[in-house]
Amino acid sequence: MKLHVIIDQDEAGYYVADVPALPGCFSQGRTHEEAVINIKEAIEGWLEVMESKHSVDSARFVEVTV
């Protein structure tokens, strides 16, 4: 899966990462590299939570690649 991540440096010097396609999915790090590592973990957690909230009927499950 590929997602666009926006990383900006805040006024305190931290790097803040946001995933526009996943509302509420954001993280930060002291360095750009740390922010990238942390946002990957945040994405995994976001997807796990969203998947657990919705039961999937495998008979209706369709995988789509865009």
From TrEMBL:
List, for all copies, the residue spans of the domain called HicB-like antitoxin of toxin-antitoxin system: 5-63
Q: Short name of one Pfam family for this protein?
A: HicB_lk_antitox
PANTHER family per the record?
ANTITOXIN HICB, UPF0150 PROTEIN SSL0259
* Protein name, UniProt field: HicB-like antitoxin of toxin-antitoxin system domain-containing protein
